[in-house]
Each structure stands twice: as structure tokens, then as C-alpha cells.
Amino acid sequence: MQLTPYGYNLLAGFIFFLILFGCFLQGITLLILLKKENQQKSLTPYLLNIVAANTFMILGSFPTTLVSSFARGWAFNDAVCKFIGFVGGCAATSMIASMLCITITIHRTIAKQNVTNHILHQPPNKTQLKIIIGVWMYSAVIMLPPVTGLTEMKLEAADTNCAPNWSPDTPGDLAYILILCVTAYFIPVGASLFYYLQIRKALSAHMALAIPVASIQAQLRRFQNITYMTAVAIAAFTITWLPYAVYVLIAAFGGSHLFDAVMSVVPAMVAKMSILYNPFVYALVNPRRKPYQ
């Protein structure tokens, strides 16, 4: 499906904006996270991993989309298509999985705290590094079938980007798409929502035991802010990627004909916009005052 010349120019301008502003935001976020006071926070490794995933997506897949937008169609060979699809899939999976890690860490932190004590300060450890390595290994493994030929990697978004074939021809291809959607999106999002509810439950328990002392009330306010900010972060990730997940599922069950060129581009572009807001996850879940980790 092809866009009009104006549509391709508009897409090229949008991708150029994502590359330019996205790289700027990742750089700013990286500088903030590497400050001395942030290096000792247990969420920092996961936030750095989100920056890495964003950068991997920006530099690994956006430039080919930009060139193809100017060319009015895919400007590279099949090997490049497979590589770009692999890079984009790994980055997206790692990004969402890192948000789940952040939510679980916040839950464990708040659930273990005594409201009469200061929030503990726990520096990053080797376990977190192992988890991050595991996230990337899993992301790579789950994206291997289209690269190795077990399933297909095809053009999408008006022939300017590559992704697994969302319109499968065989039951095996359909099974792969469903497994990918469930494990890379629905399970992480569902688990994040579950742990968010557990965070609220732990907060309610703290408030039930609250003592009208200024320091304790301040502690409760920090807990409440963390809970609110966690909800915002989860909602942002969920909403941004939901249109693309719905598009994939509709296409997988034979509904690709329902989408014209523009409607096939929009969900992918909305998902890619996540690189613009998720650097601010740092500001949402990493309080500037006394560290809660």
C-alpha cells in the first residue's frame, strides 16, 4: 500500500523529528541518570536500559524508514529488512519489559517499608544486571523466527519499515504472532497492572497504620507520589502501544484489508512516539528527594 507524495513527505518529516528530538532526549536523560546521586539508585539500571532500547530503535531502524520515505518505498534489500525488523522488535520488547522491572522494584520497595522508617537506599547490584541481560536475550530469541526464515519478515507502514508478517499464511505463522503479542506486550502490561494494584494495596496498609507525626506523613506523601507516578508511567506505555497491538491482531486474523496505507502507518508511528515520552519515566518514578530505593 502506497501513500501519496504528500503523505510520504509528511512521514519523512515526522521520522526526522523523531530522530533529532529523540536523540536529544536520550542524551539529556543519560546525563541525568549518570549524575552521582542517581548512580546509587536501584531503578537507574532499568532506566538506563530504556534509554539504550530507545537509542537502539532510533539509530537502528529510523534512518531506513526516513530514506524509504524519500524514495516512496523500501530502498534496501531483504537482508536489511530482516535486520531492521529484528532491531525494532528487540528494542520494543526490551523497553516494555524494563517498565515491568521498574514496577516490580517499586512494589517490593514499598511493600517492605515500615512507615516509621526512612526509605531505604539500595545501590544497583549484579542481580539487576543479570535481569537486564536476560531481557535482551529473551528479546533477541523471540525475534529470531522471522530472521531465520521460520516465519516471514515483511514490509509495513507504506513499505517504509519491516516487521514480522502480520498477515500469516500458515497456522505456524499465526501461532508465532499470537505468542509474540502475548509475551512481548500483553503479559508485561498485565503484570505491570497487577503489581500496580499490589502497590496500592501496600500503600493502603501503610496509611492504615499512619501516625500523625510530620516525618511519617511526609513518608506517606512520598509513597503516594510514587504510586501515582507508577500509574502514569504504565498508562503511557500501555496506551502508546495498544493501537499497534490491536492492528497486529486484526491483521493476524484476516483483517489487513480493513487498513489502507494511512491506517497502517498511524499505529506504528504512535508506538514509535514512545521514545519521546519514556525518557521522562525517570522524572516520574525516580523522586529527587530522599531516595526510596
Automatic annotation (TrEMBL):
<feature type="transmembrane region" description="Helical">
    <location>
        <begin position="83"/>
        <end position="106"/>
    </location>
</feature>
<dbReference type="GO" id="GO:0005886">
    <property type="term" value="C:plasma membrane"/>
</dbReference>
<feature type="transmembrane region" description="Helical">
    <location>
        <begin position="265"/>
        <end position="285"/>
    </location>
</feature>
<dbReference type="Pfam" id="PF00001">
    <property type="entry name" value="7tm_1"/>
</dbReference>
<dbReference type="InterPro" id="IPR017452">
    <property type="entry name" value="GPCR_Rhodpsn_7TM"/>
</dbReference>
<dbReference type="InterPro" id="IPR000276">
    <property type="entry name" value="GPCR_Rhodpsn"/>
</dbReference>
<feature type="transmembrane region" description="Helical">
    <location>
        <begin position="127"/>
        <end position="147"/>
    </location>
</feature>
<protein>
    <recommendedName>
        <fullName>G-protein coupled receptors family 1 profile domain-containing protein</fullName>
    </recommendedName>
</protein>
<keyword id="KW-1133">Transmembrane helix</keyword>
<keyword id="KW-0807">Transducer</keyword>
<keyword id="KW-0812">Transmembrane</keyword>
<feature type="transmembrane region" description="Helical">
    <location>
        <begin position="46"/>
        <end position="71"/>
    </location>
</feature>
<dbReference type="GO" id="GO:0007186">
    <property type="term" value="P:G protein-coupled receptor signaling pathway"/>
</dbReference>
<keyword id="KW-0297">G-protein coupled receptor</keyword>
<dbReference type="GO" id="GO:0008020">
    <property type="term" value="F:G protein-coupled photoreceptor activity"/>
</dbReference>
<feature type="transmembrane region" description="Helical">
    <location>
        <begin position="174"/>
        <end position="197"/>
    </location>
</feature>
<feature type="transmembrane region" description="Helical">
    <location>
        <begin position="226"/>
        <end position="253"/>
    </location>
</feature>
<keyword id="KW-0472">Membrane</keyword>
<dbReference type="GO" id="GO:0071482">
    <property type="term" value="P:cellular response to light stimulus"/>
</dbReference>
<feature type="transmembrane region" description="Helical">
    <location>
        <begin position="6"/>
        <end position="34"/>
    </location>
</feature>
<feature type="domain" description="G-protein coupled receptors family 1 profile">
    <location>
        <begin position="25"/>
        <end position="282"/>
    </location>
</feature>
<keyword id="KW-0675">Receptor</keyword>
<dbReference type="InterPro" id="IPR050125">
    <property type="entry name" value="GPCR_opsins"/>
</dbReference>
<dbReference type="GO" id="GO:0007602">
    <property type="term" value="P:phototransduction"/>
</dbReference>
